[in-house]
Amino acid sequence: MTSAGAPRPTFRFAPSPNGRLHLGHAYSALLNADLAARTGGRVLLRIEDIDPARSRPELVDAIMSDLAWLGLRFEAPVRHQSQHMQAYRDARDRLIARSLAYPCFCTRGDVRVATEGSAARDPDGAPLYPGTCRGLPPEAAAARRAAGAPHAWRLDMARALATESGTHGYADLALSSPAERGGEGVSHETFRVADPVRWGDAVIARRDVPTSYHLAVVVDDAHQGVTHVVRGRDLEAATDLHVLLQALLGLPTPRYHHHALILGPDGGKLAKSKASESLADLRARGDTAEAIRATLGFA
After folding, report:
1. Are residues 90 and 220 in the same domain?
2. Could you give the CA distance from residue 226 to residue 224 in angstroms, rounded to a whole number?
3. Strand order in the sheet with 228-232
4. The overall pTM is greater than 0.90
5. How far apart are CA 193 and CA 228, in angstroms?
6. Is there a domain that residue 132 lies in?
7. CATH code of the domain containing 271
8. Same structural domain for residues 277 and 292?
9. Is residue 164 located within the same domain as residue 219?
10. pLDDT digits (tens, 9 = 90+) for 153-202
11. Cα-based distances in Å from 203 to 103, 113, 199
């Protein structure tokens, strides 16, 4: 239960409308809802649709349908990232004004050529950006921008770490198995030191939108008063970068838990990009919501 004077525990489930939900999404949504119920908290739904090329309105409707079928209800209004670009632009501009971000004119091909032969990779497996545009004279960068040269914005990691000196980290929640639940929902927590340097000069705003996943989620979590971020283990490394961005922007750091992933028949994680069997597929073959909940440990 919530102690006197403490903010009400607030969880969130934040899918992207670029494919149908699968069992991994169902597990994460159900776990967030279960923990909210056990702690006297609330769970919010956020649609992470900053990608204009991949986000599709009909998939937003499909997400709503799948979650309702599972028996999940969320507070209105649902936050859609595509409707809050100004908030992300403002956060980006705050970092730029402090010289913590710089324009990058490199294409993916440029980065690939510049890093050929290098084994350095970020946690997502992409070549670690070598800082090609970091040293551009401000006048030259401004002239290229004025001429309409496409560019992203990258965090100057070294400058950011020098600005926010000291140890950064977050409360890492441990939950009991099998459904990673127990008692009031959390068995204990430990302090985990963040290691954002492994991301290098990460992109904080893309060429086509004034944000990135990393910047948008920290702005959203703060705006929505999220106190507990419970998401898949595949996003654990991203938390290191998020903690740094929160410090740079003066935003609160939630507690975090990165749950085990639901694996497919091949032993790999379920993914929209792999066309993993969706909840819609399971519904079509006659599986019930009750059966899905029981399979995932939420009977």
Report:
1. yes
2. 6
3. 188-193, 169-174, 255-259, 228-232
4. yes
5. 17
6. yes
7. 3.40.50.620
8. yes
9. yes
10. 999 999 999 998 778 899 999 875 444 554 445 568 899 999 999 999 99
11. 10, 18, 9
